[in-house]
Design a protein that fits this description.
heterodimer; A: alpha+beta; 3-stranded antiparallel sheet; elongated; B: alpha+beta; two-stranded antiparallel sheet; 21% strand
Chain lengths: 99, 227
């Protein structure tokens, strides 16, 4: 049991390091989603996200669109990994507590 | 240092004493531990390590003078287990570490394990190890010189084999790649090295790597490859 316990504690510490890094990175990435509006037959791209209760809409230049799309994808991936890591921490805490 | 890590380094020390360490390459998740301990990538932290410690044997004819590696491992407390189905011998220590040897599967390949008479062991043949075998680096870690794949090649290899891994392992590999690449986000040397290594690969290998990047939505982590 102590071997498993050691492994769990080591893993928990490693997961916490990862969570800290990802939280730091995620703050540097844009959030929200891309909204395409058609005005007078022309398409315009906007980044839409929430800031508290407010919904913020920011215009995205055509040249920046791909970059924003890629960065939103990156954020989504990191968020997905973070959710998994938080679940793992809960599981480890539960097992360690039961011991 | 955890007990598992101590066993790992004792094993490395024993292999070094026997003179075989220079003929082996630590691959798999444990090479991340070697990167971390060596400190060559400042502050790099490894992902979760498994029980399996994989050693690649780049040349099964080395060393020239045969050594009895199983005997040395048994002296360390390892228990050898023989798999009748494929003739593969693995070495287990207290359920903490399982040592396995790998070789490059070339041409048609063969059924069952490869004999490595120079070390007295058998090794499993695996595809796609060529890229690792050709791109190793010797790192000074914990008082030993340990051969590991170059970090950029380690990542490229994980991307390359992602489509042939089980879904569980493939996802785990992606998480490992993301963690390493995020830690090295501002390391220009690493980025240059990864771009350079990618260019040396066969076009089919490059295609597979790019497909994995697309499929696993990793473009944001490897944007520097576009330029």
């Amino acid at each position: 049991m102590s071997m498993v316990y050691d492994v769990l504690l080591e893993e928990k510490s490693r997961i916490n390091d990862k969570i800290a890094l990802y939280n730091e990175r995620i703050n540097l990435l844009p959030k929200g989603s891309i909204l395409i509006k058609t005005i007078k037959g022309n398409q315009y791209n906007y980044l839409v996200y929430r800031e508290g209760k407010k919904v913020v809409t920011k215009y995205i230049k055509k040249a920046d669109l791909e970059e924003v799309r890629v960065m939103l994808g990156k954020r989504k991936k990191i968020e997905e990994i973070l959710r998994g890591l938080k679940k793992d921490i809960k599981l480890i805490d539960k097992v360690v507590k039961e011991r | 240092m955890t007990r598992q890590q101590r066993i790992f380094w004792d094993t490395i020390a024993a292999m070094s004493d026997l003179g075989v360490l220079k003929h082996l390459v630590v691959i798999g998740s444990w090479c991340e531990h070697v990167y971390e301990v060596s400190g060559c990538y400042h502050g790099l932290k490894s992902n979760m390590r498994t029980q399996d410690v994989d050693f690649l044997i780049p040349n099964i004819r080395c060393p020239a003078n045969s050594v009895d590696l199983p005997k040395k491992l048994e002296e360390l407390g390892y228990v050898a287990s023989f798999n009748r189905a494929n003739n593969l011998i693995t070495f287990d220590k207290d359920g903490q570490i399982e040592v396995e040897f790998l070789v490059r599967e070339l041409s048609k390949g063969q059924l069952g394990a490869y004999k490595v008479p120079s070390m007295g062991v058998t090794a499993q043949g695996l595809r796609y190890l060529d890229i690792i075998s050709k791109n190793t680096v010797a790192l000074a870690s914990n008082g030993h010189i340990v051969n590991v794949p170059k970090l950029d090649v380690y990542i490229l290899h994980k991307l390359l084999i992602n489509s042939v891994r089980s879904e569980h392992k493939a996802k785990k590999d992606i998480q490992a790649i993301v963690y390493l690449s995020e830690q090295l986000e501002n390391n220009d040397e690493f980025r240059k090295s990864l771009s350079g290594s990618l260019k040396t690969l066969h076009k089919n290998e490059i295609r597979k790597i790019m497909e994995t990047i697309e499929k696993r939505e990793l473009r944001g982590f490897f944007k520097f490859l576009d330029s």
